[in-house]
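Morning run. Coffee first, then this:
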Amino acid sequence: MSRVRSVLNAVFRGPRTFVVDDVRYRERTTEPLHRALSARGSGYKDYDVLFANQAPVRIRCTPQRMYADIGGPSVVAPYRLSDPIIRPGMRVLDARCGTGCGAAHTAARVGPSGAVVALDPDHESVRYARRRYRAPNISFEIGGIESTGGELDGAFDAVLAVDWIRPGMETARDLATLWRVLAPGGPLLLVQPLPAAGRPGGDSPQATPGPVRLTTPQLRDLLHDLSPRPGIEPAETTEFGAIIARRPLPGVEDPAPTRASPYPPMR
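And here it is:
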C-alpha cells in the first residue's frame, strides 16, 4: 500500500524541480529515481538541466551514468579513498571520470598549481562534466586509455582508476599503459564495486555493461605482471574492492611478495 501511495503522490505532484549550486534540474517524468533504476523500472530517468548563461541540456541518469547532484554524495565516495595520496600541485589522471564529480573533488585537492586530466568514452558524461565542473585546472576529454598515447612516460604524479575495469577490456594491457604514464614513486588507486553477496567476483555476465565487480585480493592479482613491481598500500573500505599501488623509485629493490590471493590471477 505504501508503494502505491508513493506512486500516486508522485503523479499528483507532477515533475519535480530542484537547484544545486545554481544548476536547475527538472524531472521529465514523475517516476521516483530509485524505482526508475530498479528491475521494475524503465532503467533510466531523464532530466532537463539549465546551467547559468548556457543553453539547457537533457541528461539521462542510468545505473552506469550517475550524477552526484541527483544520486547524492555516494557517487564521489570512491574518490575519497584518494585523499591521503593526493597533494597540492600534483598532475593527476582520472582514467574513467564518469560525470565528473570525482575529478572535481580531485581538482580541489591539487589546487590551482595542480591539474587533473579526466577521461571517459561516454560523450554525454563528458558534455555534462564540462558544463557542471568548470574549474580551470580540469581537462575533461572524450576517450579511453588510448588517449594517453601522446603522454610521456611518468607524465602523471598519480593515477585514479575508479570503476575503470569493464567487461571485454584487455585489462592487463591497459593497466600497463596506466603504469607507464605514472611517475616513479607515484600512486595508482584502483577501485571497483564489490561482488554481490554469494559470488566470488570477476567478469560474470551482467544485465548492463557496468563496472566489473572485484575484491581487493583480485585487484592485487592484476598487479603481478607489472614491471617494476609495485609497492602495495592499504585502501580500507567495506563498500569497494580497493588498492593503492605505488610505483617504485629507480634503484629500489622489488617489494616482498604480496599476500597470496584465494582467487586465480585474472588475465
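The CA atoms of residues 36 and 145 lie 31 Å apart. Good start to the day.
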